Amino acid sequence: MDNEELSRHIGRRSGQILFALAFVALSALLLSQIGAETKWVKRTKFFAQPRFWPAVGLGGMVLFGGLHLWRLPRRKIDRLDWREGMIWLQVLEYALWFMAYVWLVPLVGYLPVTVVFLPLMVWRMGYRDKRLLWVSAGLGVCIVLLFKTFLNVKIPGAVLYEYLPGAMRSFFILNF
Amino acid sequence: MDLLLSGLEILARWDVVIALLVGSVGGVLIGAIPGVGPAVAIAILLPATFSMDPIVGLTVLLGIYGSSMYGGAIPAILINTPGTAVNALTTYDGFPMTSRGEARRALSLAYSASFFGGVFSVICLMLFSPVLAKVAPMFGSREIFLAALLGIILVITAHRGQTLIAAALASFGIWLNTIGLEPVKYTKRYTFDQAFLSSGVNLIVVVLGLFALSQAFYLLQGEDEKTRITKLKGGLFQGLRELARHPRVAGVSASFGVLMGMIPGVGEFTAQFMSYTYAQKTSKQPDSFGHGSSEGLIAAETANNAVPAAAMVPLLALGIPGEALTAMMLSVFYVHNVVPGPQLFQNDMPFVVALYLALLILNVMVLVFLLFSTNQLIKVVKIPNRFLGVVILVLSFVGVYSLRNSVTDCVLAAVFGVLGFVLKRLSLPVVPIILGMVLGGIMEVKLRSGMARVKTPLDFIDRPIAAILFVMILIVLGLHIRRVWLDHKHLKEAKWSNKHSSTRFGAHLSRRKSFLLAERGKKRRAERSMFTRPSTDKD
């Protein structure tokens, strides 16, 4: 591929081929399932068929994804592509942190989990400054107060709150 | 006048006033922090606004949308990092001004230009509303389908150099929207017999994943940037006076902003590009552009701030969002059973006017806030990136989980977060996915109802507006094909300018062969083969 063509490419080059290949493969796989996953209804116009729009979407994905893959400046996977792929995998760790947070909130409670989670994650990210850790814990309290207490956002009370005595139980379930 | 008064009446509530205040101040803060754009904030706040009145919820979101670009100019000018993506052009002239010790002048000019752009567009649209109210009812199912199709084509073609992948991602959005139980024939589509997929993939879950979680992952994965901020001294009022010296640049840029904002899929970048080019071409000092030109700064900031109000036009009048932020706002309308579209203009005009008035008041509030608090505000630029990532991660939880208290939604959002992260790393566009989802849904419904009374394909475009929209689609496609062809030609020219012959090795060999086989070639070969064995070929 010519330098001129490479210079016109937008963004980083490594990893493009991996993404394009995965996208086209997944699209083709989904398109191959269209017969089983959608229905063709008799006595219904073509444009009103339940299969019509999934076919448009998947057809577009395969066609344009394929063309994008074909027009890529470099169509060979090399070492840098794999390195980029590893960076994508590293992010899964943060996704797991997020899922752990999601899993713990209904069990332990929005306030306690947030107040512990924020400084813990800040610690994980390499910050050791005590002031920043306290700030993050305080921020956790503020977030809970803002969303759960004042804006009444729908976050259910935790299982652990059930063990609190009398009035405190309902107060915690409602506000924290 | 009556309309104005009834619009003001809608706004005269304490909760709307608080929403305006929170939206404007919050928007400026969010804009000023590089790494948190209005899309992240709006995505997180969306579910929280569902429990509010439509006008209150929309005011908060509009506030963030309208004021984030004011805030985004601060880091663009002071540290050469745009606070929001649309402030990128501000760095061209803003930062050179800071480098030569004119940070205060640049900031004040940016605020004034933004204010002018914002107010100009709101006034334009308020004057334009009666016309819009007359035109909007002419849009039936076919017209809305064609307008949505035009919107999606414009969004795709706007991604110059990435059109193919933008089209593929928009198709992905269209497909995502079809997952679940189909509402007319009640058949399942791509549910793979999983109960959680029967209700479909929620737009807000996708939005939160692609915008908020992906941004959190991006910040967490990256490094903290060291920033040095110039201390500001003196007042910030001189920009208004300086702006008054360039009425032509400001007026034309604001008009570009209004026009481009109204066209779905075009938005701030095109408006800015056109205004900046116009300002440079008509300037007495075109060489100063990119080196701290006040006209360049005015053009960039006026154009981008004129867009938000204009972008509300296709959303309110036709129910068609032109970009990601208005697509998110559409869900607020749907939750409250307020269906934007021609009916809204016919039946609830005061509501529309109230929204415009809210934007107008917002601009005044933001300007006043910025004029007095910039010195304190610039400190937010110093928040470390990865710390910010942690905060966005925690806030994203509120957005996703509060929607239906579903862990599955959170898993889906995390998956889209990783997808968004990959797209961000590769500089591939995210917006076509969201618009594919929203516009795909609109197109499906409108095509079905539009085709009900159509016998031949030409019947579909037999009404004047449908015909105009169809011609516009053809023009956009034609222009795009022309541009692709010209790009291809330029590329080929660039290749040829470096080489004397065709770049293809096969073509080179073929020419060599034909030369050797030609009469003159044979003669030359014979001459040169004096020192080699004579050929045994028979003539």
From TrEMBL, chain A:
Organism this protein belongs to: Thalassovita litoralis
Record keywords, A-Z: Membrane, Transmembrane, Transmembrane helix
Protein name per Swiss-Prot or TrEMBL: Tripartite tricarboxylate transporter TctB family protein
Segments crossing the lipid bilayer: 52-70, 91-112, 132-151
Domain DUF1468: 18-156
InterPro entries recorded: DUF1468
Signal peptide (residue range): none
Automatic annotation (TrEMBL), chain B:
Bilayer-crossing regions: 12-33, 109-133, 139-157, 201-220, 315-339, 351-371, 383-400, 428-445, 465-485
Alphabetically ordered keywords of this record: Membrane, Transmembrane, Transmembrane helix
InterPro entries given in the database record: DUF112_TM
Chain ranges of the DUF112 domain: 18-435
Keyword Transmembrane helix part of the UniProt annotation: yes
Entry keyword Transmembrane: yes
Entry superkingdom: Bacteria
Pfam families: TctA
Name recorded for this polypeptide: Putative tricarboxylic transport membrane protein
Source organism of this protein record: Thalassovita litoralis
